[in-house]
């Protein structure tokens, strides 16, 4: 049975075998006085190439970052105090509009220099609230939508409340407009899926009708999903938990990233004061547009009160969310598509009440650098739905719906990048319409 332990092993293998760049210093050369080591620099581009988030992966918090200094047209630098380069430091290929970058150790830390392929760029440094990474959000400042993005990057730091970014980040349903985040060395394949059973241990989640606990429903459903995915798709399944234990929210995304996961699916059940509330809904990361979506988000996020280190969530707010939405924008359309496929599958059951695909700022979705969704299987506070979710048949059917959706997702993706059954058909045409 694969679990957290497998995630760790996979991470080690990944680091040792799949290094995308050269180590720049040997083990002996790592300065011992550096309290933070930089392991990697990676790029998370917007699908429309109007910006990129540069992620500087750090093993510990960076004590301070200098302000950005623009040293010439399209060139900038800043420094990370007290940081050094890890002996496994690796560099990914720069993505537009970044053309080159270097990290150089200095007596006091690391100097980061970037060169852009154009001069109309703006950039902001942000700490990632759910990891130790430093994020550099880069936006192109010329043109209509581009200037909106640049303004959003500025506003993320300076002037909350933020503008509604829905016109910028909301993808167009049904368009496979870009190959999903691929391994730098190869094309996208669905080889690893992360299944996240919500809650666990002292975090019981929602308490439902008759005293049934959310944590006890989502675990067996998650295990059924994982077992079927392994059997039918031959993918590796990474679970964030396989028993009744507490796992901090940020740790769940970390497990997903370290395992090289290609999809992150978080399984939950809903709750409401009104016992009549019922139905299924699936979320992806974004700003909530309704009070109902906000209520679900707040309920699922409140678990951080049980965590020892709450400080890492201190920066979670609406302005921070904008930066994170930008960081994940490369995955947004795919997250939305997977959410739609899951809701469609739930709808195959006549009794299903489809509450739709929604966006909200779930902490657990923030930290996963891959298409990520959060599924609410039904209302545990509704007597009928609670009985359904407790039943063997109910759990099997709910799991089956999620599995079928992931199968469809995999097929469509393969088609969109010309490697599978869908080649040249609808998906190819959709990709070709991109302007
Ligand atoms: Zn939950």
Number of strands: 16
Shape: elongated
Bound molecules: zinc ion
CATH architecture of the largest domain: 3-Layer(aba) Sandwich
Main sheet properties: 6 strands, mixed
Query: CATH superfamily assignment of the largest domain?
Result: Zn-dependent exopeptidases
Amount of beta strand: 25-35%
Mean pLDDT: 76
Question: Gap between N and C termini, in Å?
Answer: 45 Å
Low-pLDDT stretches are 1-31, 144-186, 415-435
The succession of helices and strands, N to C, reads HEEEEEEEEEEHHEHEHEEHHHEHEHHH
CATH topology of the largest domain: Aminopeptidase
Helix content: 25-40%
- What's the number of domains? 2
What this model shows, in words?
The protein is of the alpha/beta class and 435 residues long. It has two domains: 22-159, Immunoglobulin-like, CATH 2.60.40.3500; 192-430, 3-Layer(aba) Sandwich (Aminopeptidase). The protein is built from twelve helices and 16 strands. The strands form three sheets. Strands 12-11-13-16-14-15 form a six-stranded mixed beta sheet, with helices on both faces. A five-stranded mixed beta sheet has the order 6-1-2-10-9. Helix 10 (383-390) packs across helix 11. The longest helix has 25 residues, at 392-416. The structure holds zinc ion.
């Amino acid at each position: 049975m694969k679990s957290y332990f497998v995630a760790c092993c996979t991470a080690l293998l990944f680091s040792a075998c799949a290094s995308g760049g050269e180590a720049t210093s040997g083990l002996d050369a790592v300065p011992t006085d550096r309290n933070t080591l930089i392991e990697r620099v990676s790029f998370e581009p917007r699908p429309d190439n109007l910006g990129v988030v540069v992620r500087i992966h750090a093993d510990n918090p960076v004590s301070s970052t200098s302000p950005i200094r623009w040293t010439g047209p399209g060139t900038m630098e800043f420094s990370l105090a007290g940081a050094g380069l890890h002996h496994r430091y690796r560099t990914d290929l720069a993505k537009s509009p970044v053309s080159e970058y270097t990290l150089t150790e200095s007596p006091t830390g690391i100097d980061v220099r970037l060169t852009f392929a154009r001069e109309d760029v703006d950039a902001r440094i942000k700490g990632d609230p759910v990891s130790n990474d430093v994020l550099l959000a880069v936006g192109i400042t010329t043109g209509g939508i581009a200037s909106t993005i640049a303004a959003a990057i500025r506003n993320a730091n300076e002037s909350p409340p933020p503008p509604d970014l829905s016109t910028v980040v909301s993808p167009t349903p049904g368009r496979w407009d870009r190959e999903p985040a691929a391994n730098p060395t190869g094309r996208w394949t669905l080889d690893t899926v992360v299944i996240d059973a919500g809650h666990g241990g002292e975090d019981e989640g929602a308490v439902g009708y008759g005293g049934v606990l959310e944590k006890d429903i989502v675990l067996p459903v998650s295990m059924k999903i994982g077992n079927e995915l392994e059997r039918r798709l031959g993918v590796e399944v990474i679970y964030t938990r396989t028993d009744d234990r507490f796992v901090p929210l940020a740790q769940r995304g970390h497990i997903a990233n370290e395992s090289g996961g290609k999809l992150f699916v978080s399984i939950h059940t809903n709750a409401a004061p009104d016992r009549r509330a019922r139905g299924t809904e699936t979320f992806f990361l974004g700003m909530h547009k309704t009070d109902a979506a906000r209520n679900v988000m707040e309920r699922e996020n409140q678990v951080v009160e049980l965590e020892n280190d709450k400080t890492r969530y201190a920066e979670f707010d609406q302005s921070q969310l904008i930066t994170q939405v930008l960081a994940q924008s490369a995955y947004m359309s795919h997250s939305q598509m997977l959410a739609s496929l899951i809701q469609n599958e739930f709808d195959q059951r006549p009794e299903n009440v489809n509450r739709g695909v929604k966006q909200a700022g779930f902490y657990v979705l923030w930290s996963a650098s891959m298409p990520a969704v959060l599924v609410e299987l039904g209302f545990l506070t509704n007597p009928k739905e609670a009985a359904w979710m407790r039943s063997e048949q109910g759990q099997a059917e709910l799991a089956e719906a999620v599995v079928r959706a992931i199968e469809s997702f995999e097929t469509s993706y393969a088609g969109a990048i010309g490697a599978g059954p869908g080649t040249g058909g609808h998906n190819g045409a959709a990709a070709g319409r991109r302007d």
